[in-house]
């Protein structure tokens, strides 16, 4: 490497490093936007118990709550009938049918949001005995048995939260249950929990709701999944229970089982927000068993809004020249475009050092963008189909001795017709999921098929298909790079890193050694 090249490459590498250090230390910006990791995949599988005949199964289905947003869902019903029972405090899925012997259930992709209400202000209300006939639903005691109410009144007198405001009373009840009632995972009744001071998450939460209602505090028991209780090996989890209390019109999270009172809590997925009886959820261990799997969804999402605000509030000139200052449509465009040089770098290595042949210089990169903008399966199928059609079209039109421009125009028309047929058929059978049609298929395939036809005539079928395989390989590698979210965000946040890409390209451009393919091609010569 000569001195001029060494100086140029050094400058191109040092500049981005200095720029990033300036952002971190002088402008006091974060290295990257904070990654959002709040989307989960929930899969519930329900199976019948052996030697148990049952014709109806009920289980809670995810519903849109403040703490959960259902992005996608579908239900597995096999030969059973399915109906959805919608209520304000939850949805129940009901499967009905005879001879049920296979697994049923559902899948959902859900965005989890935290409980944000914390530290409630004191609230004073009248005593429970003076409430009118139209008492709020979450103060009702009608679902509790006389025995449970009798035992709870004795416990209530023992706790003695009479002369306190509602928040202080709720805390006193919470502290008593979380400290005096021992946790257990065994099945136990509410009456036995009061007698023995021993309870699971369900009976503790039901007891908390009952005591709060006796004081005049609106409380409810919530059923759902605690993401922190997953089995680390297979991501299995079970339904758990917690409470919500209503103070000044806001619902606050409470869990005596996990020792949390009105805190900022994340990782809880509510399914049913008014559990008066556990059997109302349909969870019946005697007749069927269920398994719930929760995994983090494979999404690369970042909090761009927060980082944009961080850039805008900085005292640096970067607030005017950062890509985060552009309109959102332009930002979305540059997040893709900024990785094209990385694809070109892969292409340079593949051609100059490995020796993989391709059609043209940037055709694989354009193909990768075609796959990214439409759908990978659709892109490959459409691309291969057009190669086949173009191949036969070339030989058919050769009989007419057409000039190049009319021949390309005919090929362009065939491409448009084929794209229309693909789109119409996909609407009917939905073979290609999330397919979006852009101008890339029309432009790229028309030019590519013409080159393909000419190369077959000039260099033969074998060499042409080897070049086609190399082109598809580089296109697929570039396509995977486009989906590498962390790399995309790194270069979008620090576009000066593209200078390092230029430096690497300069080094590749001066490579004069053997390609890997040549080592195999001329191995006999090297041996001699």
From TrEMBL:
<feature type="domain" description="7 transmembrane helices usually fused to an inactive transglutaminase">
    <location>
        <begin position="309"/>
        <end position="525"/>
    </location>
</feature>
<feature type="transmembrane region" description="Helical">
    <location>
        <begin position="370"/>
        <end position="392"/>
    </location>
</feature>
<feature type="transmembrane region" description="Helical">
    <location>
        <begin position="6"/>
        <end position="24"/>
    </location>
</feature>
<dbReference type="Pfam" id="PF14402">
    <property type="entry name" value="7TM_transglut"/>
</dbReference>
<feature type="transmembrane region" description="Helical">
    <location>
        <begin position="431"/>
        <end position="449"/>
    </location>
</feature>
<keyword id="KW-1133">Transmembrane helix</keyword>
<keyword id="KW-0812">Transmembrane</keyword>
<keyword id="KW-0472">Membrane</keyword>
<feature type="transmembrane region" description="Helical">
    <location>
        <begin position="489"/>
        <end position="508"/>
    </location>
</feature>
<protein>
    <submittedName>
        <fullName>Transglutaminase</fullName>
    </submittedName>
</protein>
<feature type="transmembrane region" description="Helical">
    <location>
        <begin position="404"/>
        <end position="425"/>
    </location>
</feature>
<feature type="transmembrane region" description="Helical">
    <location>
        <begin position="461"/>
        <end position="483"/>
    </location>
</feature>
<dbReference type="InterPro" id="IPR002931">
    <property type="entry name" value="Transglutaminase-like"/>
</dbReference>
<feature type="transmembrane region" description="Helical">
    <location>
        <begin position="333"/>
        <end position="350"/>
    </location>
</feature>
<dbReference type="InterPro" id="IPR038765">
    <property type="entry name" value="Papain-like_cys_pep_sf"/>
</dbReference>
<dbReference type="Pfam" id="PF01841">
    <property type="entry name" value="Transglut_core"/>
</dbReference>
<feature type="domain" description="Transglutaminase-like">
    <location>
        <begin position="163"/>
        <end position="254"/>
    </location>
</feature>
<dbReference type="InterPro" id="IPR025840">
    <property type="entry name" value="7TM_transglut"/>
</dbReference>
């Amino acid at each position: 490497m000569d001195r001029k090249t060494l100086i140029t490459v050094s400058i191109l590498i040092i500049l981005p490093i200095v720029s990033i250090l300036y952002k971190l230390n002088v402008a006091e910006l974060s290295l990257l936007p904070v990654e959002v990791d709040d989307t989960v995949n929930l899969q519930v599988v329900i199976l019948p118990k052996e030697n148990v005949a049952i014709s109806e199964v009920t289980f809670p289905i995810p519903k849109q709550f403040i703490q959960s947003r259902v992005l996608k869902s579908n239900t597995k019903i096999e030969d059973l009938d399915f109906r959805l029972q919608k209520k304000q405090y939850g949805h129940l899925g009901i499967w009905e049918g005879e001879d049920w012997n296979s697994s049923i259930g559902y899948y959902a992709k859900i965005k989890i949001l935290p409980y944000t209400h914390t530290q409630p202000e004191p609230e004073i209300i009248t005593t429970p005995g003076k409430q009118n006939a139209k008492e709020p639903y979450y103060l009702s005691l009608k679902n509790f048995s006389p025995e449970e109410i009798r035992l709870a009144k004795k416990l209530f007198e023992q706790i003695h939260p009479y002369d306190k405001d509602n928040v202080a009373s709720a805390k006193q009840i919470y502290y008593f249950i979380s400290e005096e009632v021992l946790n257990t995972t065994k099945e136990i009744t509410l009456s036995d929990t009061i007698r023995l001071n021993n309870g699971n998450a369900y009976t503790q939460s039901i007891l908390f709701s009952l005591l709060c209602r006796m004081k005049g505090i609106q409380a409810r028991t919530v059923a759902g999944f605690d993401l922190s209780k997953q089995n680390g090996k297979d991501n299995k989890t079970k339904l758990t229970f917690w409470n919500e209390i209503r103070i000044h019109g806001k619902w606050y999270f409470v869990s005596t089982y996990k020792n949390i009172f009105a805190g900022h809590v994340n990782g809880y997925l509510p399914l049913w927000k008014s559990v008066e009886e556990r059997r109302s959820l349909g969870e019946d261990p005697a007749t069927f068993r269920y398994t719930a799997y929760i995994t983090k969804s494979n999404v690369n999402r970042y909090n761009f809004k927060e980082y944009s605000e961080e850039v805008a509030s900085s005292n640096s000139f970067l607030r005017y020249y950062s890509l985060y200052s552009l309109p959102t449509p332009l930002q979305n465009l540059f997040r893709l475009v900024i990785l094209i040089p990385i694809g070109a770098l892969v292409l340079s290595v593949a051609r100059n050092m490995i020796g993989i042949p391709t059609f043209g210089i940037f055709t694989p990169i354009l193909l990768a963008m075609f796959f990214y903008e439409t759908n990978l399966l659709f892109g490959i199928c459409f691309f291969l189909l057009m190669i086949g059609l173009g191949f036969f079209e070339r030989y058919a039109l050769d009989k007419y001795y057409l000039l190049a421009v009319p021949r390309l125009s005919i090929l362009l028309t065939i491409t448009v017709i084929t794209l229309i047929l693909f789109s119409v058929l996909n609407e009917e059978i939905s073979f290609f999921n999330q397919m979006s049609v852009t101008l890339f298929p029309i432009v790229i395939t028309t030019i590519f098929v013409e080159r393909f036809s000419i190369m077959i005539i000039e260099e033969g079928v074998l060499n042409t298909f080897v070049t086609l395989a190399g082109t598809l390989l580089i296109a697929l590698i570039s396509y995977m790079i486009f989906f590498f979210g962390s790399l995309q965000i790194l270069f979008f946040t620090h576009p000066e890193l593209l200078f390092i890409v230029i430096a690497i390209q300069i080094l590749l451009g001066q490579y004069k050694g053997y390609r890997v393919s040549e080592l195999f091609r001329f191995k006999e010569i090297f041996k001699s």
